[in-house]
Amino acid sequence: MIETFDNTTQEILKELEKTQKQFWNISRTTAEFLYNLIVDSKSKNVLEIGTSNGYSGIWLAKALKKTGGKLTTIEFYDKRLDIAKENFIKCNVADIIETKKGDAATILEYLPEDYKIDFAFIDANKSQYIKFFHLIAPHLNVGGYIACDNVISHAQKVQTFIDDINANPDYENVVLPLPAGLSLAKKIR
């Protein structure tokens, strides 16, 4: 169950929802789902690929405030990351967010070997989902999740990723009919 956020956070989320198409943000329904899943799974180490203006990061971080966790978020574009950082400060979640600027695949390639992830959310270059998956997989804890947005709206671009994760015996994957389509895979071994 989502608690009511403070007035400032509610106002910022409503403003960001007005620019959803411009900044390629997830839907509020998807955001609420991810929030609840992080809280319910008690995830602590969350990785986000595709920060944009911070909309999804605010939801992820608000959930992590409840679990005592931290968010690492990666964005390629300076201007978007600057906007996101401002929004994180205004929503009182900046203290648990580490932002990384640059190419996500490159950043993921250089994660320390002992870097562990409980939950990964991917909402970036759709054609790179398969590459992101293979770079995240060694770091994802058993029982952890990888959630990928836009798997229905951009079905052709993500099909190789969907085929790959569905064929992988270490994962159980389902595509949820949330507004843009959300692939949700749990690492089972």
What's the gist of this structure?
With 189 residues, this protein is α/β, with parallel strands linked by helices.
Strand elements, count: 7
What's the CATH class label? Answer: Alpha Beta
**What spatial order of strands do you see in the largest sheet?**
3-2-1-4-5-7-6
Return residue spans where pLDDT drops below 50 for at least 5 consecutive residues: none
Tell me the number of helical segments per DSSP (H or I, 4 or more residues long). 8
Shape: globular
Structural class: alpha/beta
**CATH fold type:** Rossmann fold
Q: How large, in whole angstroms, is the Cα Rg? A: 15 Å
Overall pLDDT: 96
Measured as a percent range, the helix fraction is 40-55%
How many structural domains? 1
CATH architecture: 3-Layer(aba) Sandwich
Write a structural description.
The protein is of the alpha/beta class and 189 residues long. It has one domain (23-187): Vaccinia Virus protein VP39 (Rossmann fold). It is 44% helix and 23% strand. The chain contains eight helices and seven strands, in the order αααβαβαβαβαβαββ. A seven-stranded mixed beta sheet has the order 3-2-1-4-5-7-6, sandwiched between helices. α7 (129-136) runs parallel beside α8 (155-167). It starts with 6 loop residues before the first helix and ends with a strand. The mean pLDDT is 96.
